[in-house]
Recover the amino acids of this structure.
């Protein structure tokens, strides 16, 4: 293929696909390469194998509102979809596939954390005597924010917090060295954290200004607070 042809080729897209009706399936990353998949049906065949679907995948839906995707060009880079056969779309919390958060009072860094509660209800966390924050991974538009509950009763050690973030975020760049607000400004201490707010865990690289909230958190006002994995 000529250099001109390569330049005109559509860029590959990365998406995450869930199994329709499966509340525990964590999702699979699939690369949408239109040079490899000439038709939408060919891509659905690839998805069938990738997510190990019990039946052939015939349809893709958006995970929050169940809107059907009709062609390859409708897929958006970094977005999430639900794969289904001929059955109807089943409304589930696909972005929170039943993963267990840390339990007990202290983690391996000695930072006191709270038992798990309903992450979309900050009132539940207040009742348990803790603050709760949602944290995105820097530059990652494929993973929803994870929940970070912290006890009100224990003094917050910033180094221990960064160690906990490193453990939970599992960044490709390594250890978390700083925590930023969505506008990119750096948080320098626990007293600056606001209960219920969103933050971004960053390694040694620069903060990447991306639409984390818009792409990874449901915009329905009823479910807009603390949607996490």
């Amino acid at each position: 293929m000529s250099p001109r042809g390569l330049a005109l080729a559509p860029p590959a897209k990365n998406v995450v696909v869930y199994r329709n009706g499966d509340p525990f399936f964590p999702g699979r990353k699939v690369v949408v390469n239109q040079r490899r998949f000439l038709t939408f049906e060919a891509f659905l065949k690839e998805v069938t194998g990738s997510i190990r679907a019990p039946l052939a995948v015939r349809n893709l839906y958006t995970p929050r509102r169940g809107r059907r995707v009709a062609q390859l060009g409708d897929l958006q880079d970094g977005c999430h979809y639900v794969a289904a056969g001929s059955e109807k779309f089943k409304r589930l919390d696909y972005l929170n596939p039943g993963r267990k958060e840390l339990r007990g009072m202290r983690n391996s860094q000695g930072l006191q954390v709270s038992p798990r509660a309903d992450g979309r209800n900050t009132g539940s966390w207040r009742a348990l005597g803790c603050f709760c924050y949602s944290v995105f991974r820097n530059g990652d538009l494929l993973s929803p924010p994870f929940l970070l509950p912290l006890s009100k009763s224990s003094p917050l050690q910033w180094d221990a917090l960064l160690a906990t973030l490193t453990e939970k975020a599992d960044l490709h760049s390594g250890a978390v060295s700083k925590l930023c607000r969505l506008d990119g400004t750096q948080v320098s201490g626990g007293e600056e954290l606001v209960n219920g707010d969103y933050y971004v865990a960053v390694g040694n690289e620069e903060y990447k200004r991306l639409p984390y909230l818009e792409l990874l958190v449901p915009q329905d006002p009823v479910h807009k607070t603390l949607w996490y994995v």
User: Anything to note?
Assistant: Residues 131-215 form a domain with the Ubiquitin-like (UB roll) fold (CATH 3.10.20.230). Residues 98-122, 220-229 have pLDDT under 50 and may be disordered.
